Amino acid sequence: MLGARTWLGRGLLLPCARAGLAASPRGSSSRDKDRSVTVSSSGPMPAGGKGSRTNCSPSTPQKVPNRLINEKSPYLLQHAYNPVDWYPWGQEAFDKARKENKPIFLSVGYSTCHWCHMMEEESFQNEEIGRLLSEDFVSVKVDREERPDVDKVYMTFVQATSSGGGWPMNVWLTPNLQPFVGGTYFPPEDGLTRVGFRTVLLRIREQWKQNKNTLLENSQRVTAALLARSEISMGDRQLPPSGATMNSRCFQQLDEGYDEEYGGFAEAPKFPTPVILSFLFSYWLSHRLTQDGSRAQQMALHTLKMMANGGIRDHVGQGFHRYSTDRQWHIPHFEKMLYDQAQLAVAYSQAFQISGDEFYSDVARGILQYVARNLSHRSGGFCSAEDADSPPERGMQPKEGAFYVWTVKEVQQLLSEPVPGATEPLTSGQLLMKHYGLTEAGNISPSQDPKGELHGRNVLTVRYSLELTAARFGLDVEAVRTLLNTGLEKLFQARKHRPRPHLDSKMLASWNGLMVSGFAVTGAVLGLERLINYATNGAKFLKRHMFDMASGRLMRTCYAGSGGTVEHSNPPCWGFLEDYAFVVRGLLDLYEASQESSWLEWALRLQDAQDRLFWDSRGGGYFCSEAELGAGLPLRLKDDQDGAEPSANSVSAHNLLRLHGFTGHKDWMDKCVSLLTAFSERLRRVPVALPEMVRALSAHQQTLKQIVICGDPQAKDTKALLQCVHSIYIPNKVLILANGDPSSFLSRQLPFLSTLRRLEDRATAYVCENQACSIPITEPCELRKLLHQ
């Protein structure tokens, strides 16, 4: 650690043990959770808790709004009635700090963060704390989802000077924006083992008055150390490391941390890890005939099955919660994030491709059903998240999980009809409660509910297979399936009458790009045109509302307005690297699903813009933010970890390989090599921190397949060949439709396409590698054989 300051009292910089991902050997990221600063505990993470949602209206006697009332961010608006003189991130706040020689208090969070709600209610609504923050500090609120650059820079500081990080993140800065103290959640008052927020403020105020020069010197020293430590560059290296070696190391590190019984890669809390699952599937494909290959497949499929059976999945309304507070995937932290749904839809689709088990395709469909119903905006875009907390009844204080949990009495009243043919008296409610593990006392452990808010309530989690449940009551398996589905539908209809969790209606380019991929890939794999249409509408939304034609730049955010309109901040918040990388990936996936070349053309334009705005011409790789946009920040970073979302550099490496396959442009292959070379040291040291980049490295050092289908896109034989390709798991490929027009976009990019002909006027497939193509194939079964080789 980089010299954490101890003069403020023990515990200030110590995040709760529930949080500690910074030292995880499995490549998780601080972005993965909101956290408490409470003392370490070896027990499971509590799921209960009390939050508040102001929803832009006063929740205390303090009626006068602060300047955050003029912001668009739902998170900032939640703080608009605090008795704190909040500023948004910007020059006005910085100028005030310099003019008045005050430290900046920077507080970063997001609107569906449970511990952010806790701190807002306990501290930021407190009149005395509000007075301290307003008189002795320049207080700045940041929505981390609007400004990931600000979040990453100061999270790097918090993680380097403590044992972890998370949200809310609270950092004290000099007027020149250099950090000198940081932490996460603070309770308002001192406890036996932790420092209260009011005490922290008083001590920092005193130290700023008495030891300001020492603080400034320490801040400069730590910033310089962080700058050196965070540098990612090619240096003298010419080539990246061996893909085979990094692949093997990454697999071994994952194998060591794998939970044999419940799947996943930690004890608790336990997170969905789509980047890890994607790596394992890719590793299986290249090691199919080995024991390690079979092991990788089993690890991924078992993890996905246990997650889908657990309480982390919303069995009533579909979709996945953020993470599990226990090893068994039983009790979740209940917020639902768009980026989880997007990536998990792809993971379950890939599991279906590999296994042929419709269990996985059903889960993928359920995820997208949830997104279409609850997170879709009429403009075609997708909203960011749903909160964990909601009022149990209208007018009551929000509680975590209130919308999702059930009592036995509720279920018995809703599902009271008898089940015919059972070996004992049985209602459909009793059948459902047996299958999903509901009990009179509730199935939530007191250790996961320290405030007792969930006492007597249950989270649905599959306890038995359909076969075992059917055998227990002497019923037919299909009859049980129908009864359970009917029961879940009745619970779903009843749940509609509960107060819904807060919806963060902010729309982010990056997460919308991931969601375009989710709908496009799943729609292509399952052959469902309606899902591909959602992806198409998402891409149209991005082009219409989040792309500036004049400059060729993406915007980061827009917001749901009244009457289904879309609003923007003024001035606009321009896109970051992840916005470009994830949208380009989404467009490439959409082209392969729809064969509409306009999406491929736009992807090329966005990649050109990304290269212009973010590429490091000296060190290789991409910076997370534009130089101009991050002016004033002490660091300009390159994200070097695949966590809840993949690193934008990892995704960019894949995009560059695919774009080279679609166009043959050597510059993109050269950039991919430079990027992978720049990350060589990180890959060698902890490949498990970058599983998505390890996949890109392996793909680069293998041969990319160009699968070309020559035919009429509307013809049945063409569609049959395309569906054959989509049904097979082939991550290292590009799929191209050649319609015979030499003036088409792709024919201009790849002249060899004009030499490929249809055989006997039938749709014909060619599999090309290293500028050499297979014999022409017209039968899907023959193409399947070739692709499985």
Runs in which pLDDT lies below 50 for 5 or more consecutive residues are 1-52, 54-60
Let me know the average pLDDT.
Answer: 90
| Shape estimate | globular
Number of helices: 27
Structural category is alpha+beta
Radius of gyration: 27 Å
Helicity range: 40-55%
Instruction: Identify the strand order in the major beta sheet.
Output: 1-3-2-4-5
Major sheet size, sense and barrel closure: 5 strands, mixed
Total number of beta strands: 21
User: End-to-end span in angstroms?
Assistant: 49 Å
What tags apply to this protein structure?
789 residues, 27 helices, 21 strands, globular, disordered N terminus
Descriptive report:
It is a single chain. The chain has 789 residues and is α+β, with helices and mostly antiparallel strands. Helix content is 44%, strand content 9%. It has 27 helices and 21 strands. The strands form seven sheets. It has a five-stranded mixed β-sheet, sandwiched between helices. Strands 19-18-20-21 form a four-stranded mixed β-sheet, sandwiched between helices. Helix 9 runs parallel beside helix 11 (338-355). The protein is globular, with a radius of gyration of 27 Å. Residues 1-52 and 54-60 have low confidence and may be disordered.
